[in-house]
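Let's sit down with a protein and look at its sequence and fold side by side. Go ahead whenever you are ready, and we will take it from there.
>
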Amino acid sequence: AISQHTKNDIIKYYGISASKVSVIYQSCAETFKTKVSSSGIQRVLQSHHLPSEYMLYVGSIIERKNLLLLVEALAMLPRNIKIPLVVIGQGKGSYYKKVKSFIHKYGLASRVFFPKGITNEELPAIYQGAQLFCYVSAYEGFGIPILEALYSKVPVLTSKSSALPEAAGEGAFYVEDISAQAIASQMEVALIDEQRRRVAIEKGNAHTAVFDAEKLTAEMMGLYEGIV
């Protein structure tokens, strides 16, 4: 299983013995573990007409991912916090239209960016340029984007739902309940409290050791050898 939470779901819904289900986490692409220069980050941001400071969401635009709540939270932030949100992900259908409708209704078009054509080579720069990574999905089997943010040394705001705490570790900014008000409150803390931000980055960076690719490969090989 890719997380302890997923293991628990397998045991619960399929009645499989716990001893027969092993947990081996995923890692992420090596490109996220390499520091991009400040000039490199600015070059990518400028090429996609993005602001120099922003919060970031990466993921599909579907209801389970709760992007609408992030946008609602953005609208609730105090007037002195004008930082925008950059959204990288595909969306269509009624939920996508609902998000765009809210943005239009409350005059947020200048604060929510939907860049197109971001390449895999450019994505690490987008992560590393962010002030905060926001990912408050209602359910995830693991949460690779959170891991990408941790390796990028960016503070993470997430929920305590499903496997997200396993991915984010102790340093993340957690919302106790998935609501726009709770998200806005944590956004404010994460953007203003410099000491708390430093702790989040340090703990997040330390947590990445759990997802070391060589360690996970050895665990997987050990599992195969045990089966054979």
Notes: The beta strands are 55-58, 85-88, 112-113, 132-135, 156-159, 173-175. The longest strand covers residues 55-58.
